[in-house]
Amino acid sequence: MPVSDANALLGAGDTALASPAPRMEVRGLDAFFGKVHAVKDVSMAIPEHRVTAIIGPSGCGKSTFLRTLNRMHETIPTAYIRGTVHLDGEDIYAPGVDAVSVRRHVGMVFQRPTAFPTMSIRGNVAAGLGVLRAVGERFDVEERVEEALRRAALWDEVKDRLDASALGLSGGQQQRLCIARALAMEPGVLLLDEPTASLDPISTEKVEALVHQLRDGVTVVIVTHNMEQAARVSDQTAFFLHGEMVELSPTSDLFTRPRDSRTEAYITGRFG
Amino acid sequence: MSTGLSARTSLRRRFVNGFMLSLTWIAAVLATLPLLFVLFYLLEKGVTSLNWAFFTHLPHPPSMPGGGAANAIVGTLVIVAGASVLGVPVGIGAGIYLAERKGAPLAVFVRFLADVLNGLPSIVMGIFAWELVVVPMGHFSALAGALALGAMMIPTVTRTTEEMVRVVPSPLREAALALGYTQWRTSLRIVLPTALAGILTGVLVALARIAGETAPLLFTAFGNDFWSLSMNQPIAALPLQIFNYAISPYDDWHAQAWAGALVLIALVLVISLLARAATRSGFARASE
Amino acid sequence: MVDEVRAGASGEAENTPTEPPRAGIAIHGGGAGDRIYSVVITVFALAVPALLLLIFAVVTNAAWPALKTFGFGFLTSSDWDPVNDVYGAAPALYGTLVSSFLALIIATPLALGVAIFLSEFAPPWLRRPVAFLVDLLAAIPSVVYGLWGIFVLIPILRSYVMPFLRDTLHLGATPFFSGPAYGPSMLAAGVILAIMILPYISAVSREVLMAVPRSQREAALALGATRWEMLWGAAIPFARSGIAGGVILGLGRALGETMAVTMVIGNRQEIAASLLAPGYTMASLIANQFTEATSDLNLSALMAVGFVLFVVTLIVNAGARWLVWRTSREAGI
Fold it and tell me: What is the pLDDT of residue C16?
């Protein structure tokens, strides 16, 4: 199942045919806010066990694109999309598919830490688990919490104060707590929307290292305005500009041999 | 020559500026004076009339000294509790609606009407409760008083709940949705608990406002010289007793009225201080 | 390039070996729960207009017999005669308007002064305590103001203020300050109402003054204006309709205020030009006579007074809210 060569998925369809189905597949996606056309005709395959980075100047539609992958886009009034997004072969926008269920399978972490202020550390990690229980899944909550915190590399720092308020944690710890909260749901895909934008360099480093480790267990899509970050953590990188996807290449290729002149202009710092 | 002219103008302008500035100082002094004046007399006359019997005894006839207002204090608490049961859920529910559907035409309309309702004279609320409860039941009752005061609480609770739910950061809401929470679960499990301290403040502010209301109780709760805790019977209330004693011709009762006013103000102030404390603890938690 | 990717992806579609869909995606939705929740909070929200409508219906219904019997003359007649069952609300209407406007005349300059003081001139350490004290004025129950009015304010008015106005200033020559000074009077009602509405006017005015954009203030100051000129030339014109809204809001409070007024106005069913004479207001008429109503028509007449009060305050409040809303919207832009 792991895609042995991420390159095979990129570019022409004939090479993609040779590899197994990607975890997520976006086809001809347009996203709108009312009359504003924020994402224009984007198609992208997101391979399993890989980190896909999305870069581009602010306002290029990269966050909007990310939010179409777990149907968060539509929580904004007047927002809608055209096109299809498949998760494990199933169209998440098909009639009858419930957006709320999609979000249980595609987790998301935001720019700023969003620890729930009224809950303890344990309560935060377990926050989504009640939802899973409600749909009939059975598991040991304590085990899940510990496992999620371990995967988020936070367990050792918080294991002695699981019942303390989550607001007592540092910004970086809170962000990893949010990642743990998402991981506890055991999602197939994890979306990270500029997860280090509000963090200091040391916390950023920890989160980046974490992202690198995570891909063994989960497919990651990360939006970042930081090109170095994309280069450090991702396997393939997409460059967005004015709502369009200009280029999607293996990360090493995109930063060394960009195929599009606009990509080159961006990564060499000539605009944005 | 020209510099001298401009110097003179600026002197005049400086004078006007200083004069107006001092007028606003005088206004500030004059505006705070009545409060100090009221509080001074309350303390002076209230403290001398206040004694333990006031809290433990039933009212006495004017010729017999030593009566109290125990039933009126308890009665006020009963009415206020009843009013909260009627008014708080509706206010919180409507407030959540206003916060979540900010721009919807119905929300704009409801917000406007809540403000209008807030300005409605309390005595009109009394008439309303009289017609709706006292007339069908055939007698005055604590329930009628609670209905009148409960209706008065609704706009205050609605608008504070709205404000407090609105200031819950939207990323928090998004995070819950992204976790697979439904809208209602997000509202009840994440947004409301986060806004709780603020909503509590709103409820307390509304309580402080209605605890001293008298006019709507005149022909609903009506007053009662004896013990009663029943919602179905006329009930004593501290503001009513203050009113009846104040307009009576007896000095004993006047003293009781001052004592009652002091207790009432203390009650209102305690509720207000609790409200402030609730806000502070909420802020402290959010900014920790 | 984009087209290429897309073509590739869609070309692949027919051949995608479909894994079995992951369990649960389409099954357990929030749909029904969210719909129920939405209906519940909408019902709560609708309770507010419903309540207002219900109050209007109930009061109108109760007032109907009197309104039908006396028609428009109810507002112009001065008779209030339970023995012959003839009622007119003119003195109460007159008293309500006069006492409220008197209160506005006293309270508005003071409240504006305080608002300007707090938003512009007050030293920072004084802002919070003064604002707190003024706000506290609104927290004191009406009946406590009434008590204070009877035993403190009225004796002062009777012994000092009224003789001063009437004799020292020779205002007694005008009809407005003539006649004996009993104490309980329109003047006493106006003064106590002024104290009671002051915090409302000042709070709204302070808010709209604070809402004046910094750029407006700084532009004026940069042109060399003094603080006062900035205020008069830039801030106040900007906040004007909001301040007007605050004043009208205060008017709404004054019109419907019951207990304090009932306790100090003297409750006499007569129209007197002199502010030193006792009077009546609509609210105090209801408060005083409700439990003593002798006939159904008597009761209905009191309800009709309540109806008039309801309609007047409704219009006044709606107007005030509209003005305040307009200012805050302009400030928002």
Answer: 33
Residue B3 has pLDDT above 70, yes or no: no
Q: Measured between alpha carbons, how far is residue B33 from residues C110, C134, C259 in Å?
A: 12, 9, 22
Is residue B284 packed enough to be buried (19+ CB in 10 Å), middle (13-18) or exposed (0-12)? exposed
Strands A189-193 and A106-109: parallel
Can you give the residue ranges of every domain in chain C? 91-293+309-332
Topology of the domain comprising A6-267? Rossmann fold (3.40.50)
| Spatial distance between the Cα atoms of A123 and A121, rounded to a whole number of angstroms | 5
CATH superfamily of C91-293+309-332: MetI-like (1.10.3720.10)
Looking at residue A145, its amino acid is V
Cβ atoms of C116 and C230 closer than 8 Å: no
How many angstroms separate the CA of residue B282 from the nearest CA in chain A?
Answer: 10
Report the C-alpha dihedral over residues A75, A78, A81, A87, rounded to 10 degrees.
Answer: 10
Task: Report d(CA B81, CA B263) in Å as an integer.
Answer: 18
Q: Mutation test of the interface with chain A: which of B173, B179, B189, choosing the one with the most A Cβ atoms within 10 A?
A: B179
Sheet holding A189-193, edge to edge: A106-109, A189-193, A219-223, A51-55, A236-241, A244-250
- Provide φ and ψ at A41, rounded to 5°: 50, 60
Using CA atoms, how far apart are residues A181 and A123, in angstroms rounded to an integer? 9
CATH of domain B54-287: 1.10.3720.10
Query: Mutating which of A7, A26, A46, A88 best tests the C interface, going by the most C Cβ atoms within 10 A?
Result: A88
Nearest by CB to residue C121, choosing from B24, B109, B123, is B24
The pLDDT of residue B242: 96
Going from the C-alpha of B89 to that of each of B107, B154, C52, the distances in angstroms are 18, 9, 17
Q: What tens-digit pLDDT sequence spans chain C (333 residues)?
A: 333 333 333 333 333 333 333 333 333 345 788 889 999 999 999 999 999 999 999 999 999 999 999 999 999 999 999 889 999 999 999 999 999 999 999 999 999 999 999 988 888 899 989 998 898 899 899 999 999 999 999 999 999 999 999 888 888 888 889 888 889 999 999 999 999 999 999 999 998 888 888 888 888 888 888 888 888 888 888 888 889 989 999 999 999 999 999 999 999 998 999 999 999 999 999 999 998 888 999 999 999 999 999 999 999 999 888 888 887 777 654
Identity of residue C43: V
And the tokens for C118? 């707090």
Subunit contact C6:A43, Cβ cutoff 8 A: yes
Nearest residue on chain B to C317, judged by CA atoms? B116
Q: What is the ipTM for the molecules in this complex? A: 0.91
Give residue limits of the domains in chain A.
6-267
Amino acid at C186: M
